[in-house]
Design a protein that fits this description.
The protein has 113 residues and is an alpha+beta fold. Helices cover 27% and strands 42% of the residues. A hairpin with a 2-residue loop joins strand 1 (35-48) and strand 2.
């Protein structure tokens, strides 16, 4: 099961891409692209796994569907031509502050084979 409760693709590679499109559109990352406002700040380099990466904060991030303000961060790196990202966002009034330490712990566990 995926994070959104849908069954993950189980067939070949070409089927997986087709099946994942609806799942991604309905996932938090897919829905996050429908924002009415999005600000970034504090762009800076960071180590992401064992490679040079980047990080920036997001704020005043409001989804059109619910108009609830959100905040968080985006961290990532490009490795072997692939973009790797961790996106953390939560409600600005509660979750962004409460869950930030756990998100930082996850970010610190990034490892590449």
């Amino acid at each position: 099961m995926g994070l959104d409760g849908r069954r993950a693709p189980s067939r070949g590679r070409e089927d997986a891409e087709t099946e994942m499109q609806p799942c991604m559109a309905e996932s938090p990352c897919g829905r996050s692209t429908q924002t009415s406002l999005f600000e970034t700040s504090n762009v800076r380099p960071m180590r992401f796994g064992a490679v040079d990466g980047f990080r920036f904060d997001i704020s005043k991030y409001v989804r059109r569907s619910d108009e609830v303000g959100r905040a968080g961060f985006v961290a990532g790196a490009v490795r072997d031509g692939q973009l790797y990202l961790i996106i953390f966002s939560g409600t600005q009034l509660y979750h962004a502050r409460e869950l930030a330490p756990q998100a930082e712990e996850i970010l610190n566990t990034v490892r590449f084979p």
